[in-house]
User: What shape does this take?
Amino acid sequence: SSANGYFGEELHEDRDEDRFSPKLSITYNLDDSWLFRYSAAKAYRFAIVEELFQNERRTQGTSLANANLEPEDGFHQNLMLQKNIEDGYLRINYFTEQIDDAIFAQTTVVDNRAINTFIPIDTVDTTGIEFIYNKIGLLNNALDIRFNATYLDSKIEKNSANPDLEGNDFPRMPDWRANLTANYHLSEDWKIGTGIRFASSNFGDLDNADTVSNVFGAQDGYLFIDLKTNYQISETTKVSFGVDNVNDEVAFVHHPWPQRTYYVEASLDL
Assistant: This one.
């Protein structure tokens, strides 16, 4: 970082941080059809340069960095149950994670001016369940399906800097997500496909007060439908045409998502 910035000259002492991140995975095969797996991991996220050193003064407020931030400390667990089927599988994941010292910009008002600074949130707990279905070769081996849906609940459990935020949803974590990809083989060389992407609306701010949609800064829910076709001209040449967001959905994730988009691709493998 530069020693001369918006807030004058400030020198920081050298820091040296290291963490041990162990992982464990235990798998049990009941038979050729059923698979159970338990996984656990200790993981850390170190603060990035912006969070440590970037100070900024704007018309609407001031952002202050925090050079003393410690790494986020996470404990993650996943319990998986999988049923193998012909040319595919069904899978359920139940997962939990507890993150201590979650790095996030918190806001306070000083002399009628908003001050944003990176203050760790003591504890964020997340619990969720995911369902996955993958199958190749439906409809006389012509159709391939990939589908997944996730429900999660992510809450601020403890926040000493502002206890009023405790119990709120953690930002940018939608309750529901789902994705579907389907590819149909018209012939050995020609394939058409569709993709559906869904997420429920969520919050961008810790106080969960940002409920207005379709504006900059919003965290909107969305349903995007995509179409694509591929044609293999030869062993080395392939062309593709697609349309993303066919339904022209308007949605923002802080900034606007692209609306209906057309594209053409060609590839040559030598």
The helical segments are 49-53, 138-141. The first helix runs from residue 49 to 53. The radius of gyration is 24 Å.
